[in-house]
Amino acid sequence: MTTKNIVVVGAGYAGVAATKYMSKKLKKDHDVKITLIDRHSYHTMMTELHEVAGHRVEPTAIQYDLQHLFGRNKNVQLVTDTVTGINKEKKTIQTKTGTYSFDYLLLGMGGEPNDFGTPGVKEHGFTIWSFEDALRIREHIEDTVAKAALEPDAEVRKAMLTFVVCGAGFTGIEMIGELVEWKERLAKDNKIDPDEFTLKVVEAMPTILNMLSRNDADKAVRYLEKKNVELVLNSPITEVAEDHISLKDGSTINTYTLIWSAGVRATSDAADFGLESARGQRLVANEYMEAKGYEDKNIYIIGDQSYYEEEPNKPTPQIVQAAEQTAHCAAANVVSAIKGDGQKHKFKSNYQGFMVSIGSKWGVAELFGKIHLSGFMAMIMKHIVNLKYFFDIRSGYYMFQYIMHEFFHIKDDRNVARGHSSRYGNVLWSVPLRIFYGLVWFVEAFKKIVGNGEVLKPSTWFGEGSWFTGNSVFPWTWDYAASATASTGSSAADAVGGASATVASTVASTSDVASAASGAGEAATNGAGEAAAQAAHFGLSYAYGEEPMAVLDKAPDWFSSIMKVFMPNMDVAMFFQKFMVFVEIGIALCLMAGLFTWLMSGTTIILVVMFCLSGMFFWVNIWFIPVAFALMNGSGRAVGLDRWVIPWIQKKLGNWWYGKPKSIYGDKNA
Question: Residue 231's beta-bridge partner residues?
């Protein structure tokens, strides 16, 4: 059977979306091979470049290894290389190190900054369009502020602490928003007054954020002005020098940092491919995303590189939504062609809204053309959209990493929760609590083993009063005891009384977290008169002389019905009862050793909820739940085995599930 080769060039939003779509739809077609070629071994989350450039997150937060994205897609081959040419007649592409044949080719090589020929931008400006760009901006700002702190000349110092962003679109406004927040840390680290910093946005148009409604954009204007950001509008930049920029009106702004976000065009790497191009070097595509003039060669153009006018003189915008939608259109046509269903899918845009963050705590969003959000809710919506992206590309791993980077691995309160969710704290002080918590579990589990025996005499363990003899203490099993005793010929009343006495004796010896029925059990078995004489009192800590109150007096009928399914008779109930003791010992030892602390704490919460529903837990012990939550914040990584075990497991499981990440993928002799 002849293999059909699909080659996707570019692992940006469009390339990843197309490859994921085709891999899923063609996974049962074993004669199809998909090759994804990119100059990098990773996918960059371009919409979050400003977060790296502005030092909000670490660089790895927006860098997603392709092996982790496609390790489970067995019909996808990854190649790290640079495409240099296309032979349309022979249907091959040339790279720096090899040649690849194709039956279907999807070009999604993305874009690059457009300086519109402005003198000095390449030499003295800082573009923000790649992972490398973001790192370069970050390092330059840190170095410039450090030098400014030691600069004795007031004018030079002021210019060095003046930061200008050119372009008031989404990228430019998000970049200035990061600088608003970062300047506080920069000032503190370099012993500078934050008021010495000057932040400006220079825009050639009379307004900012022109893809939003004017009302939403004006909210952003007011917020920026509140943060002392100067908006220089109607002011095209005519020249960029090392220490200043010149504007069209003849004025200058003294600065050593100009971040250029004024425009984008298709990558110049595709200029020699011999395909028809349009404005901004974009390659012209028809309504099926096929390269114009080469429809019979199965060449498709997707993402920022694609130029298709859905309406006259209105090409698809160079945004993520358009990139993914052009990719899905082209991928659907490739799948249809391979399967031979005769369908041709036309591109139909469906842009669901736009949103922009100005720093980590405030944003503005316009959804479906009718929902308008700002501030906290806009930021929450942006995070939801980003999380949906990981769902769309089926990457639970990077969804988890995104949550950790955006909500927990944050410094200087730079997240939507204003730092309250940050885990950057000293968990060392939770170690005594963790060890004590584990000790509580151990002592109470050990009491269930010893029963009425002596602690120092193992031969007396597992006897009367322990959880290993007699009948089960679980409330829904008391009727099992009655039935079992009745079958021996004893009176039903005596049987129930005997079973209740056993339960009362057992529960009384195990008044702890796992069996917190000591008070409730005795009240049930010692008679209604005693219960009336000693009424239970609500409290969250034990008060001398008071009878503690159970969370629930008895198990709800629905819960008892479920438990009876799992424990249909006394033998099964006793097995679970004995097994529970060893589970508690395991939890205790793990907590004291700091091993699997998050899992053990989560298990504790589940067990306590079950004991509450069983009518076997007191309010005075409800502290078990908040303590378990507290220990889930990495407590096991301080003086605990989790410090070594968890990273080792993550590495082994990651390599097994996804494969080992590499700096270069693919067989160069292919």
Answer: 201
